[in-house]
Amino acid sequence: MRDVGTNYYYEGDLRDVRVWSRALYDEEISCRASGGEPDDQTGLFGAWTMDEGTGQDVADTSPSGIDGVIDGATWVAY
Q1: Nearest in space to 71 (alpha carbons), one of 60, 59, 61, 57
Q2: Of 5, 9, 17, 40, whose CB neighbour count within 10 A is largest?
Q3: What gap in Å lies between CA 36 and CA 5, rounded to an integer?
Q4: Angle CA 26–27–29, to nearest 5
Q5: C-alpha span between 63 and 8 (Å, rounded)
Q6: Domain range summary for the chain, segments of one domain joined by +
Q7: Rounded to the nearest 10 degrees, how much is the dihedral formed by the CA atoms of 29, 35, 39, 40?
Q8: If you compute the radius of gyration of the chain from its CA atoms, what whole number of angstroms results?
Q9: Residue-wise pLDDT tens digits, 39-54
Q10: Where would I find the beta strands (DSSP E) of 1-78?
Q11: Does the pLDDT at position 8 exceed 90?
């Protein structure tokens, strides 16, 4: 993180960002880290796969549907 006044900016690559309203069990984390997706999505607040590839909009694929806007980012292919 880089401090710019009262704002903090992440310098690096992001992909498949998810925010949960609960702590995840070790098994859930391991499953996701290996490319799986457990059935239990309870507590998923937001999920942004960031696979749009162009533009500034990022879609939230969770039930919350809180789409986002990125600023100053460059898309890269994975």
Answers
A1: 57
A2: 17
A3: 39
A4: 65
A5: 28
A6: 16-69
A7: 30
A8: 14
A9: 778 889 999 989 899 9
A10: 2-4, 7-9, 17-20, 44-48, 57-58, 68-69
A11: no
